[in-house]
Structures are given as structure tokens and as C-alpha cells.
Amino acid sequence: MITTLILLMLLAVPPETALSVGPKGPLLGWLMRTGRMQKRIDPDRLQRILRRGEALYLDGASRSAAAMFGSLLLDPSFWELAKTPSHDNLRYDLAGAMIQQGAYGRARKILLELVSRTPPSAFRAPAFRKLTDLTLGSGQYEQSLIALDALPKGLGDDEKDEVAYMKGLALAGMGYPQQARDALEHVSRHSRFRAAALYLMGVLALEQDDSDAATRYFCSIVRQPARAKYTFFVSQNTLEVIDRAWLALARIRHDEGKYARAIETYRMIARGSPVEFEARYESAWSLFRASRFAEARTRIADLIDENPRMVDFPAAFLLLGYSLAGDCHFERSRQVFDDLEGRLASPIEDRDMGPDIDLPLLPAPVRTAVPPSRGETAAIRNAGRVREAAGRAGWMLEQLRRTATGMPQKFLPLPGAKLREDLLADLSRAEALAQRLADLRFGLGKGNQARQRELDQLLAQVVAAQARAQNAMRRLFEGQAGIQPVQSSLATDQDLPKAYVFVEQKEVAELYRKLIGQADASNRMAARARRTWALRAATRVRTWERLASIGKIDAVIGQKQALETEVQNLAQGRYPLSLFKELAEAGFVDESMEYWPYDGEVWPDEIQ
Amino acid sequence: MKRFIVPATLLLFASNLMADPPPSEEPAKSPTITLAPRAPAPSALDTKALAELGVEHSRARDALLAVEARLALMAEKVFDSRLVVRYEGFVDPPFELARMELDLDGALVYRNEFSRAASSQNVKLFDGHLPPGRHVLQLRVYARGPDDPEGSQPGYFAGSGMTVHLRPKSLCRANFEADSEGDSPGRAVLKEAEPEGEWEIDIEATFETEAL
Fold it and tell me: What is this model's ipTM?
């Protein structure tokens, strides 16, 4: 009778929580068998826990919030409330926390379920928007768009706008600019993405060499209608999009040679905007092109003073040097180029090491001047995230082993825990030492090649030791994942779900193994990204160094030409006022003598 | 007579330089607006493989959170021992809280990057059910000085930790209380002949247990 009841209850559970092969079945079965489910349906309790979880989530603790929401969703005590607004709220919050944690697949499934619910869920609209945010954040356009296409019911207007924006971005990323523009045209002015869609269409038009269309798109973003209202929905990021549109317009005008208009356009970007520094830096270039050297010099000097570690700072120094030379300040110009050469140090270009070893190739100033690209950043971050996930799987294995003994209070270290700690410390020390050696090597300058070679050899040894420690660590992890799950326990079946704990240990060990494999692959990818970044940076640094030395030559030539011109002037009797003064002091010019000083412009009698 | 003989020569000279800049100068001269590159250069990163790795890892994260949810449910139903960790702190301006991390038994459970954070913070870092017994908490606080760029690594770091002992059927509240002050060696200070700076932070860690 009881078994029949349990079976009936299991059949009544919602599809997403239905029992499946794996640890969930034994756990839920044990909860029901031992009567640990709440007898009375308690919506208030669900609300209370929900509020607690939401506070946690808003404080940024998405991991424990996701575990809390996930356990609530699993808990058979609340299955009766499955289609109530509180339960939908729970699913919505769970999806949000999972997105924060990078668990996109399950989050997408939950959100799609909320969107496709009949009768419609009260959370349909926010769930749809969250699904869009998930897609834009993860870049998983294909998965989301295919799932949305398969929805049985039609979409509302706002939802169509969101889909059009996602399609536009996906097509643009795949290299179909015209199709992307066509899709983005469908984003209506009521959508939160209208301004962003216009901006993107402008960018795509520029990529298709259609600067007139691009200008139209950007102007439609920044245009202020007569009644001072924007003609599209103003969302959270609209102000930034407007600033970016001004920046884009200024760049178009600069490229067309309309420097005065470009300078005016750059001025439209407000102080405190995320693109303020970019705008000030680029407007200095426009001023330079417009031959307004003094203004360009002031602007770029202010920027360097305010933010000496800005991206592309060597180009800013070059601009400062040339704007000084433009006004004949050759000595100061040469000093700026000298200063730039001193700040740059060529990264290691190629080394006799394996291609996938993690090397500290870039000195700090170069890291600042040439930041990693989006792909490189993603690869480096991904490796860290996988390591963190593997650490969590190891933590779970440890918790399960403690639980499985039936005496969790008793500390039971995982075999190899001490070795793991030591290896982690060694790896950390090796990394710090390698970076220090690399910095020392960069700081030596070009003159001391013998010392550089010595440091290179030392660095190679440290890096090789680091690789050996990493391999040992991987072997240790694999060993830990292979430890047999604890079966014997002091607890009775009434006190502990032993079947669940046993199956879960196997499941987590498998996951741990998978994550170790992923960590290997992502470490290789991160090392490759660092190498790509280093090679790109080396190319740019060499170019800047070459430009700085050309700048120095220019400054010397300029100084020489200035001197030659001065000599020619003297030979032709064009004496400057300072010389007349010296001659007067020496008694060669008396008060009755008429003289016309030459100050490099015109003779006084020509000023009419 | 013509004016500006010397400047004109130099301007002509400078314009010659500008007219034929090396290719790498172009981006600064004429900033471009582009999307991600369409086809990777020979030495570029394999973005397709990177995306595949991302999707694979996302699946692993799905599985991880599912396990955590089951573990939390089991710990609640079997032991009913709950741990709540909170941080209450004041970071004295001009310093600014940049990042906070909490490790539970060596695994990261909380990490948050702050942008223009308020000087006073009251944050719940963890709330969940765990097996009873000994658990180690380690907190790391990172701050940024007044002239540190927004995207750069925060330059100031402090850590604290404690061990808590969870009892069955009880709630353990762990608190980290931080108070900091100091003078950062900002741009104005660094211009002085003998710049100096300091950042002092006191973090007090306590826990208390109450029966449920």
C-alpha cells in the first residue's frame, strides 16, 4: 500500500523534477520513505525561504542562493505549490542565480518552461528578458534561438523585439552584416534594445563602407527632438550608447578630415562617461591634425598626468612628442621620446619551450599598453573558472565522504590532502618567482645581454619546475577522483540516505574527473592566449620603439634645420631683437640708429 | 616677406611624417569601430574551440549546481545544521572596496567584484545547510586606492579566517567585522619628494550558535 502511494506521488511530480536515473531518485525515495517531507502544505514557509535566498542573491552570493533555491525546487514538500506564483518566483530566482554561476543550460530550460507555461505564468515577461540577457551574456545564440523557435505559442511584441536583437547580434558575429542589419531593423522603438540596435546597425554600415548610412544611424541616437524626448525607449544603458554614438560620429568626421567638426563632436561626450578618456585622447589627435599643437599638447599632457597607465599610452607619448616638435620645442620633444623608450621593454618573443606552458611573458607597462583581446581574456578567465569548479567538486567529495561515515563531526581528510596543499603552495611560489624573474629581465634593458641570457635560463628552469608540479597535481587529482566511495557507515538507513550518498559519491567523482580533463584543455587554451597576446604586444612594442627612435631623429633634424635657418637669417641681415639688444649693450648700436628686428615672422614695415 | 620660415619648414617636415606613418600608428590616428574578427589570423586564438570549451564547462556547472542542491537538501533533512556568514565593514575613503572572496573548507563560495562600492557594507556571504562538525572560513578583502584605474588589479589586500563548529539542529552565525583607515599614496602624494602611504584594516571574526 505504502509503495503504491509512493509510486503515485512520484508520478504526480512535475516533469522537470521527475525521478531519473542517478542520485536524485534514491534521495527523494529516502525522504518519502522516512517521512521527512512536511505533511502540511506551507506557502508561507516557501515565501520566507524565498525572501532569504533573494537577499543572499542580491548580496552577490549566487552560489549559496542557487543551492538554496535548487534544494527548494527538489523538496517534495513544495511540489503541491508547483504552479503557484511563489513557485514560479522560485524558478525565476533559481535561473538568475544559475546564470550568475555560469550554468546556462539548466537556467535556459527553467526560463523556457516559464515562458511556455499554459496558462501563462506571471513571470513570463521577466523570464523572457532574463533569457535574452542569458543569451547575450553567454554568446549561446544558437541554443536559445532554436529553443525559442520551437515554442508552441506565438510571441508578443516585446518578445519579438528581443528575438530580433538576438538574431541581429548572432548574424553579425557570424559575418552576415546585411542580414544582421535587416534583423535589427525589426527592433521597434519601444524595445529596450532600440538604441543599441541603431548603434550596431551603424557599426555594421561602417564595416560595409557605408559611412552615410552609419552617420544616419548614429545621428538618430543622439538627436534631441524638439520636445526634448527621445524617440525610443530609454533603458539602463541608453546614456552609454548615446556617448558611444557621439564617439563614433567624431571618429567618422576625423577620418573624413573634418577635424574641427570632430573636435566639436568629441566635446559632446560628458565628463564621467565610460568613454571620456577615449574621447579626450582621440580629440587630441584631431587637434594635432588640425595643426593646433599647443592645445593637443595640453590635452594629451593632462591625460597622461591623470592616467599614466592608460591603454595605448605609448601612442599618447608619441603624440605629445610630435606636438612639441610641431611648435619647435625640439629639446623637450626629444626628452619625451627618450622617456617613452625607457618605459617600453620588449617582451620575450619566442623561447625554446613548449607552446602550452604558462609563461609570464609581459612586463607590467606592456600589459597596460596592450591589453588582451576579448577572446584572450575569455580564455584566461575560463581556465580560472574551471579550476574553481574542480575545487568545488573536490569539496563536495570531501563533504560526502564525511557524511558517508555517519560521523560527520569527525574530521576525515581526503587522502593526499597534505600533498595537494604543498603542491598548491609550490605552484604559487613558482608563479611569483617566474614573474619576478621576468620583471628583472625586462628591467635590465638592452645593454646587458649576457645577464639577460642568465635570467632567461633561470626562468626556463622555474617554468619547467612549474610544469612538473602541475603534472603532479593533475595526477593527484585523478587519484583522488578514483578513490572508492565509502559504503560502510555507522548510521542506520533511517538516519542517513546511504544509497543516495553512495551513488552521489560516484557521480561527483565522475564530474571531478571530467573537470580535471576540462582544466587541462582550458589551461592549454589560456597558455595559447597568453602567447598570442605576447606576440601581438611584442609587435606593437617594436613599432612604438621604432617610432620613438624616428621621433628622436626628427627632433634632432628639426633642431638642426632651425639652426640653419637662423644662420641664413643672420647672413641676410635679419637680426632678431635679442641680438640688437646685445649689440646695443656692447655699444655697436647707438640711440640715433634705426633698426628693424626680425622675429621670424615679417618685417615691421610689412605689417599693414 | 614670408613669415614663419622656421615653423613652416618644420610643419612641412611634420606633415611629411604624418603623411607616411607606419601602419601601427593608424589605429590611434583614425580610431576604428569593429565587431569581433570574422576569420582568425593564422596565429590567432581558436575562438571556435574556446566557445566549445565554454559550452562544455557550462554543462559541468549545471551538474555541479544540481549536486549542490541535492547535498543542501540532504544536509537540511538529515542534520538541520545551518551556517550563515556575514561581513560588516567600513572601508575609509579614499580607499574603495574592490573585491571580496570567501572560502569554505578551501573551496570558493563567494566572490564579488564591486564597482564604486559604498564605504560601508553589510553583506551576507553564505547561508546554507552543511554537515555538522568543523568548517574553515577564510575571507579575503581587496581595496583600490583613489588613483588606481577602475579596471586594474586592486592594490590593497587583507585576509582573515576562523574555524566554526556546527552542531546538529542548530544555527551558527559567523561574522566578519572590518574597520579600515589610512592615506593612500595617490597621485598628489607621489609628486612629493618623499611620498608615503598606509592602509590599516582590522577584521574581527566571531561566531555564535543557537539551537533551532
Answer: 0.80
Q: Looking at beta carbons, which residues of chain A come within 8 Å of B57?
A: 102, 382, 385-386, 389, 518, 522
Amino acid type, A335: Q
Contacts of A262 in chain B (CB under 8 A): none
Grid coordinates standing for A274? 565610460
Each as own residue / partner, the long-range contacts of residues A14-23 (CB below 8 Å, 24 or more positions apart, any chain) are A14/A79, A14/A82, A16/A109, A16/A110, A16/A113, A17/A73, A17/A74, A17/A79, A22/A503, A22/A507, A23/A500, A23/A503, A23/A504, A23/A507, A23/B67, A23/B70
Q: What is the mean pLDDT of residues A426-443?
A: 82
What pTM value is reported for the model?
0.80
pLDDT band at A447 (very low <50, low <70, confident <90, very high): low
- Give the pLDDT score at A229: 62
pLDDT tens digit string along B85-122? 999 998 888 888 899 999 999 889 999 988 877 878 89
Q: In this structure, how many other beta carbons lie within 10 angstroms of the beta carbon of residue A375?
A: 21
Residue with cell 548615446: A242
Confidence class for position B39, pLDDT limits 50, 70, 90 = very low
Give residue for cell 523570464.
A127
Distance CA(B82)–CA(B75), nearest Å, equals: 9
B36 with A105: Cβ contact below 8 A: no
Taking the Cβ of residue B139 and every Cβ of chain A, the question of whether any pair is shorter than 8 Å is answered with no
Please write the tens of the pLDDT for every residue from A68-97: 999 999 998 888 888 889 999 999 999 999
- The strand pairing partners of A98, in sequence order, are none
Grouping H, G, I as helix, E, B as strand and the rest as coil, residue A55 is helix
Return the C-alpha cell found at A221: 541616437
Nearest partner of A75 among A22, A113, A32, judged by Cα: A32
| Test mutation, B1, B4, B57, chain A, max A CBs within 10 A | B57
Domain range annotation of chain A? 364-566, 577-606
* Cβ contact B125–A59 (<8 Å): yes
What sections of chain B are H helices per DSSP? 5-19, 26-29, 47-78, 187-190
Q: Is the dihedral of CA A494, A491, B173, A52 positive or negative?
A: negative
Q: Which residues of A257-277 are buried (b: 16+ CB within 10 A; e: fewer)?
A: ebbebbbebbebbeeebebeb
Residue B188 C-alpha, separation from nearest chain A C-alpha, in angstroms? 10
